[in-house]
Amino acid sequence: MSASLRHTLFLGFQRNRFIEKYTCCIQNFVINMSHLKMYSTDSPGNIVTKHTKVSPEVVTLLEQNGTTKSGELRYRSHPGTIRRNRSQLPSRLIKAIKILLEKYPVKSMEAETEKLNHYLQHRQIPVSNRELTEKAREIEAKIVAKEGEIPDDLYGLDLENARDAMKKKVFTRLKKIVYHWKPIQYDAFSSYIYLLGCMAIDYSILLQCFTEISKRDSNFKPMSVYNFGSKVGTAIWAADKLWGAIGEYYCVDNSVHMNTIAQLLLQDANEQSQVFSIKGVHFRLNEPSPKNNKFSLVVSANMLIEEPTYQDRLQLVHNLWEMADNYLVLVENGTGAGFTLINEARDYLTQVFTDPSEEKLHGHIFAPCPHNKPCPRVSQNTHCFTECIVNEPIWTSVTDKEKPRQLTKYSYLIVKKGARNKAECYPRVLQENRAHKHTHLHLCLPCGQLQRTVVNKNKFDKHVYGCARSVACGDLLPVVLSDEAFPIENQ
Questions:
Q1: What percent of the chain is helix, strand and coil (3-state, nearest 5)?
Q2: Where in the cell is it found (predicted)?
Q3: Tens of pLDDT along the chain (491 residues)?
Q4: What letter would DSSP give residue 65?
Q5: Which of 4, 95, 165, 452 has the least CB density, counted as fewest CB within 10 Å?
């Protein structure tokens, strides 16, 4: 091959590479522009800019924490971060679980735990009678359009048979498209299945929720805890891990078998023992009166989906909030149904906050939202989930080296009595993407809007850049915001 031919081929190859690279850049630009429709950087709600600064209190705290070996401030410990480490169950609890499971073939039970988890993750909200009637009418209209109406010349038994046949067709099709909801009833065996397959997940989620409260409100320590839907007592262990001795735990679950297992775990799996590893725990089958009982912390996980109607769910939320002296924590699965239930409760509570006749029930959304406005993601038909790292139970057949880094998604709501502290109200990070010398952040702002911003090392304040490099989904960005970021709430 001659030198001139090689040179010509080389130029052609370089030209093709340039065209491919240019085309790729154009495609990425188009994709990014379409994505910006959701997160506008030029809207009036664009609060975080290159002029934004980190809160002076946060800077002082970072300087007090010292520097790394390279001389950088320890931004990973800034007040907005909520570390998502693997949460190992307490060793005393693990020992008790192993003893309880000795009489069961754990390896064969793992298949049952997978079935239970799959069922729980795919549960849907009960369909109301009104929705059911509307769907039935739609189906009947389609059948009539295709097959024609019942003849007018039918009388007596023939007319009755024709109507029954139509009802049967409607009911058959209705069963195929409508989720058949029913409340879960846990017997002895299914309660042990829940213990084996779900307790570690529930523990990690609740501990993460409690950690957020503890980190952002360090002066708060609950004197009493009310746990509605306590199941195997996971909330007891998570609260004890974080806050230590608490005066009273009032646990309600309608399953006798769940209450029995929860009590055995506190007795180190020895039913003859009169000593509980955590003191002050009481188990009940029925909930107490909201008027006469108050608790520092009220917790309910995966119980909204157990209520058969919309009115029942709102009544439950109202009762739980009425019993909360300080905080209410609601948790549901990280699914579309779970988010809908949490947002439903959120919308109801924000209405209660503004009701003049319910002044004692006024409060604010503590987490995950930095505002009481309607969730901006709902209008865009997207969901808001939080991730949690789960430490696989060590009693399964999988060895430690084989255990993957398991992430579980959940929807949650933490509500606090009283007015919001403006000084501690920071944007919530919904998504982060770290690149070379810049970080893409999707934020939920205190004004109730979404913002997408790129924090650049050269253009932004160094402390803002350092904090932005250290946040993860669900963390807060501790920056000082303008007054327009804080609408008047509860009015």
A1: 45, 15, 35
A2: Mitochondrion
A3: 554 544 443 445 444 444 444 444 444 433 344 343 444 444 444 578 778 888 887 788 877 777 766 667 777 777 788 866 667 899 999 999 999 988 777 777 888 989 999 999 999 999 888 888 888 888 878 877 877 777 777 777 777 777 777 788 878 888 888 888 899 999 999 999 999 989 999 999 999 999 999 999 989 999 999 999 999 999 999 999 999 989 999 999 999 999 999 999 999 998 888 888 899 999 999 999 998 899 999 999 999 999 999 999 999 999 999 999 999 999 999 999 999 999 999 999 999 999 888 888 999 999 899 999 999 999 888 899 998 888 766 655 555 555 556 889 999 999 999 988 876 788 999 988 888 888 898 999 988 889 888 888 888 888 888 888 888 888 898 888 766 555 555 54
A4: T
A5: 4
* CB contact at 8 A, 429 and 475: yes
Q: Are 491 and 64 in contact (CB under 8 A)?
A: no
Q: What is the DSSP string of 343-373?
A: HHHHHHHHHHHT-GGGGGG-EEEEES-SSSS
